[in-house]
Amino acid sequence: MTSPAHQSGTDRIAEVAGSLRDDIIVNVQGDEPEIEPHVIDGLIAHMESHPDDMATACTAFKSMADVENPNMVKVVCSANGQAIYFSRSVVPHDRDRTATDPGVYRLHLGIYAYRRDFLLEFASWKPTPLERTEKLEQLRAIEHGKRIFVLDVATATSGIDTPEQYAEFVKRISSKGPAHSDKMMI
To answer: What is the DSSP string of 5-52?
Structure first.
């Protein structure tokens, strides 16, 4: 168990990373129990071949209703795949109210890959104003001028952020049979 005093999941992962020797640490957040292996592999491959300190993943939104859901985090990226900003609000803002394609918006997935040394440095920083406002710890890295690579994947599994999404997850797993649901509930 990690200290209950941590401000975020990343801080908890950093505590564990302090006792590891691995250069790359991957954190699949607990609210993403169905994350696909190719996403994990893609982040590791990127970290092995690029000097980025931190990486995460995103995909296109499938519906405009989801874009407006504050439980589904949005990410805006540069042309070279670096995160510009993460938000619970709808970003980018559709000033002219003409957006009808939810694919313009990117859904942040609950997975991170870090370099161990960066992760330990990150945990030494206090939570920042944007992080405290949005309740998104990755903003701490951005506010400290760090770059976050964002792997854009074609599809994503459903995260669990609400009781309704949890109920849908249980129903989905239960329909796959007892052998599968036992493995997912461990």
So the answer is: T-SSHHHHHHHHHTT---SEEEEE-TT-TT--HHHHHHHHHHHHHS--
Q: How far is CA 42 from CA 14, 22, 82, 150, 153, in A?
A: 21, 17, 15, 11, 9
Angle of CA points 100, 163, 137, to nearest 5°: 70
Contacts (Cβ under 8 Å, ≥6 apart) of 84: 76, 77, 78
CATH, domain range 9-159? 3.90.550.10
**Residues 128-144 pLDDT 10s:** 999 999 999 999 999 99
The domains of the chain are located at 9-159
Q: What SS3 class is residue 115?
A: strand
Q: State the DSSP string of 17-30.
A: HTT---SEEEEE-T
Return phi, psi of residue 95, to 5°. Answer: -55, -45
Contacts for 124 with CB less than 8 Å, ≥ 6 apart: none
Query: How large a percentage of the chain has pLDDT more than 70?
Result: 94
